[in-house]
Design brief:
It holds the Pfam family Polysacc_deac_1. Is involved in generating a small heat-stable compound (Nod), an acylated oligomer of N-acetylglucosamine, that stimulates mitosis in various plant protoplasts. This protein is an alpha/beta fold and about 220 residues long. The chain has one domain (about 5-215): Alpha-Beta Barrel (TIM Barrel), CATH 3.20.20.370. The chain has helices spanning about 15-25, 45-55, 75-90, 115-125, 145-155, 175-185; strands at about 5-10, 30-35, 60, 100, 115, 125-130, 160-165, 185-190, 200, 205, 210-215. Helix 2 (about 45-55) links the parallel strand 2 and strand 3. The protein is globular and about 45 Å long. The N and C termini lie far apart (about 40 Å).
Length: about 220
């Protein structure tokens, strides 16, 4: 297996995220958490995000509501999904101002961004992280570990893995997954592969336009 860049979407969840952080701390693994902005209005959820940052994990923007992908929204609404979350994140943001669009089940394509959203991300010097492995823990909380391990085995380069710290029971298996993956040779803490970062500090990279809808 190759390097793994571990990420978590759709939190923070006060009933789940602390357990995830406990597992990562025991295994000394750094991850990146892409947060749904509206959840940060809950002080308990914000405390989870602050703990994650304090423990060395990176924090990113995963839209305000995680509703329809931004490429299917109007210009003003799409920009607000990004900008309002940035405001809620505040000092939780790192220097790269990370952003991950929601894909509607892990799909990639021009539905991820519309032109207004893309222009906003460029203007505000965001870095966009996509993905190349989504094992579906959000829909298969008991079986996702086997799927994730198979995805790691199939990758020939760094795996940018997306898990979800959601209250569906899937994260009860996180420690087992990390152990089995490490036993099979996975090395956690890798940087994201270049083809999963189509925008870097506001500078479009090759292929960025493939994720922007002009409709």
């Amino acid at each position: 297996m190759v390097g793994v860049c571990l990420t978590f979407d759709n939190g923070p969840e006060p009933g789940v995220t602390p357990g995830v952080l406990d597992v990562l701390a025991r295994r000394r693994i750094a991850a990146t958490f892409f947060l749904v902005g509206e959840k940060l209005r809950d002080p308990a959820a914000r405390a989870c995000a602050e703990r994650a940052k304090a423990e060395g994990h990176a924090i990113g923007n995963h839209t305000l509501t995680h509703g329809e992908p931004l490429g299917r929204r109007g210009a003003e609404e799409a920009v607000a999904e990004i900008a309002e979350t940035d405001a809620l994140l505040g000092a939780l943001h790192g220097p790269d101002r990370l952003f991950r669009p929601n894909g509607g089940g892990g799909r990639l394509g021009p539905h991820l961004l519309n032109r207004a959203a893309a222009d906003h991300l460029v203007a505000h010097r965001h870095t966009v992280w996509l993905w190349n492995a989504v094992p579906g823990d959000f829909r298969d909380p008991e079986g996702w570990v086997a799927t994730a391990l198979a995805m790691l085995r199939a990758q020939r380069e760094t795996t940018l893995l997306v898990l979800h710290d959601l209250p569906n029971g899937a994260m009860r298996h996180l420690d087992r997954f990390l152990g089995e993956a490490a036993d099979a040779g996975a090395v956690f803490g890798a940087p994201p592969p270049e083809d999963c970062v189509p925008l870097r500090r506001g500078v479009p990279q090759p292929g960025f336009e493939r994720f922007v809808s002009e409709a």
